[in-house]
């Protein structure tokens, strides 16, 4: 972590903030402050350079054309790749997740190069859009409770050998490959299809990012009763028969 | 524009039969306690005569109104204004898809004007079927993301569907997506109606460039797409007409957004020869629209019922509620008609409610609770509106709810 404050960078809210993605930034920011950390949040618009000295980067979901524009501008800018090579923690959702991979299908139906920060390739599903509540078990190595979220995407994401599945679905489509995987991660870069936003439903993910950025094993506890109540309700709603 | 055939061609026997069958179906639906029956009635009628909508409309001077927010209210305001010049038929209850519209028009055989609210997704089709004289386009923003088309795609569809229309298009110059949608039309009256919510138009609808938005202006830094010069404008509590005259807005409806709706409605009325002064005076009569803005008494307390369905709507609603310590009840559902994804709650700046006593109800009260907790404002979670009202400190209660939550509240408070 640089200096005394935690730098939280929200990448391209002008293009990739269609699904309440600000929520992830707000939850990370709030939970850092609750631990007495000084947080500097930087919202980077797509006509501005991405700072390379951030600790945690968030990149969200968006519609098809803004996704292509975001990929073009991020490739041209190069800041996010430099931040990644500096060891920054990057957490991405949906369209942002696809952009961090090697390639995805853009709004013109063409293969669009991504940033290659995580070993995944995304294609477009032929069937119905994946929409609805998701329940999944997060990779036990990450030590997190069950993942609850809401998915809304047409993409299918295939994991390469150096990406690990972030979670295994119990309900919902996740990566859409039919193998039960949801999201992907490597040491410092994470991707998921979960909206909700995902941190509001799973505040322990925000804590994981903070721990990785601070290089600590534990954080002081917080009063999470409303998060826990929401989680319990959503998990029950996802598992009860329709 | 105000010309109207003195002796309209009568409806064909088939169309008449369709209207009658539709009315019968609506009556059955009403008797069965399934709402007003207008939609089922319209469906039956359209099945018997698929061209019925066009046939009903050809006897009318038709005005279409579409937007993400404010279309029901604006439809009411325009209808009131045009009554100065002749009888009006309108889908005043917000049944805004082809079946509901057909049903509403079938009930107005003596009308001169048809003032029709249209769901965003159906605008191009209804505009084709009804040959409108005027089309009012207010705003476009994110709404029901789990099932609606992308907001920009909607603007694109409007643009294609309205290209070359013979209607006068009355459009909001302050919403880039509306300007993009309207500017394929040959005859546009631009109204500076404002738009507080800006987060769906940061990239240029034409070229994808980043929008620059200094003050009230906007333009694309790359392709030159920019805000058109308006001929009408909302200026505080006044409407400025194309001659530069300022007309005071007197509304019972609260808030900036409704003043914007009144400005647009005045511009529409002028197309039909109703002067702004007359139009605006008539709009004063509109008190509540399908229960919205109504002040009701419940358990001995006064509640103002406010509907907010999406981030842009919540933003406008926050700007019209009474100052703290006015108590606020928030209710959110996520049923089919609301959109089942609640992520949008995080696009709403609930921090603006700081200082208000806040009670939270609705199917998704826990999503709201987490949202408010992260916003750092105090709140109480309640099981029912009764409990929330009992917990509310003194003062008129502002109740803000999304679509089905609003209907739930109306049923409970007997509105």
TrEMBL record, chain A:
Binding site for substrate: 129
CDD domains named in the record: GATase1_CobQ
Protein name in UniProt: Lipid II isoglutaminyl synthase (glutamine-hydrolyzing) subunit GatD
Record's catalysed reaction(s): L-glutamine + H2O = L-glutamate + NH4(+); beta-D-GlcNAc-(1->4)-Mur2Ac(oyl-L-Ala-gamma-D-Glu-L-Lys-D-Ala-D-Ala)-di-trans,octa-cis-undecaprenyl diphosphate + L-glutamine + ATP + H2O = beta-D-GlcNAc-(1->4)-Mur2Ac(oyl-L-Ala-D-isoglutaminyl-L-Lys-D-Ala-D-Ala)-di-trans,octa-cis-undecaprenyl diphosphate + L-glutamate + ADP + phosphate + H(+)
EC number: 6.3.5.13, 3.5.1.2
Family, per entry: Belongs to the CobB/CobQ family. GatD subfamily.
Organism listed in the record: Streptomyces lateritius
Subunit architecture: Forms a heterodimer with MurT.
Function: The lipid II isoglutaminyl synthase complex catalyzes the formation of alpha-D-isoglutamine in the cell wall lipid II stem peptide. The GatD subunit catalyzes the hydrolysis of glutamine to glutamate and ammonia. The resulting ammonia molecule is channeled to the active site of MurT.
Catalytic site: 94 (nucleophile), 195
Pathway named in the protein's UniProt entry: Cell wall biogenesis; peptidoglycan biosynthesis
Gene: gatD
This protein's UniProt keywords: Cell shape, Cell wall biogenesis/degradation, Glutamine amidotransferase, Hydrolase, Ligase, Peptidoglycan synthesis
Span of domain CobB/CobQ-like glutamine amidotransferase: 8-202
TrEMBL record, chain B:
Subunit record text: Forms a heterodimer with GatD.
Transmembrane segments: none
GO molecular function, one term: ligase activity
Active site per the UniProt annotation: 341
Segments forming domain Mur ligase central: 68-269
Function: The lipid II isoglutaminyl synthase complex catalyzes the formation of alpha-D-isoglutamine in the cell wall lipid II stem peptide. The MurT subunit catalyzes the ATP-dependent amidation of D-glutamate residue of lipid II, converting it to an isoglutamine residue.
Name listed for the protein in its UniProt record: Lipid II isoglutaminyl synthase (glutamine-hydrolyzing) subunit MurT
Binding site for Zn(2+): 204, 207, 220, 223
Domain of life: Bacteria
Class of the enzyme per the UniProt entry, highest EC level: ligase
InterPro entries: Lipid_II_synth_MurT (IPR043703), Mur-like_cat_sf (IPR036565), Mur_ligase_cen (IPR013221), MurT_C (IPR013564)
Keywords: ATP-binding, Cell shape, Cell wall biogenesis/degradation, Ligase, Metal-binding, Nucleotide-binding, Peptidoglycan synthesis, Zinc
Catalysed conversion reaction: beta-D-GlcNAc-(1->4)-Mur2Ac(oyl-L-Ala-gamma-D-Glu-L-Lys-D-Ala-D-Ala)-di-trans,octa-cis-undecaprenyl diphosphate + ATP = beta-D-GlcNAc-(1->4)-Mur2Ac(oyl-L-Ala-gamma-D-O-P-Glu-L-Lys-D-Ala-D-Ala)-di-trans,octa-cis-undecaprenyl diphosphate + ADP; beta-D-GlcNAc-(1->4)-Mur2Ac(oyl-L-Ala-gamma-D-O-P-Glu-L-Lys-D-Ala-D-Ala)-di-trans,octa-cis-undecaprenyl diphosphate + NH4(+) = beta-D-GlcNAc-(1->4)-Mur2Ac(oyl-L-Ala-D-isoglutaminyl-L-Lys-D-Ala-D-Ala)-di-trans,octa-cis-undecaprenyl diphosphate + phosphate + H(+); beta-D-GlcNAc-(1->4)-Mur2Ac(oyl-L-Ala-gamma-D-Glu-L-Lys-D-Ala-D-Ala)-di-trans,octa-cis-undecaprenyl diphosphate + L-glutamine + ATP + H2O = beta-D-GlcNAc-(1->4)-Mur2Ac(oyl-L-Ala-D-isoglutaminyl-L-Lys-D-Ala-D-Ala)-di-trans,octa-cis-undecaprenyl diphosphate + L-glutamate + ADP + phosphate + H(+)
Domain Lipid II isoglutaminyl synthase (glutamine-hydrolyzing) subunit MurT C-terminal, chain residue ranges per copy: 307-405
Catalytic activity, EC: 6.3.5.13
Family to which the UniProt record says this protein belongs: Belongs to the MurCDEF family. MurT subfamily.
Metabolic or biological pathway, per its Swiss-Prot or TrEMBL entry: Cell wall biogenesis; peptidoglycan biosynthesis
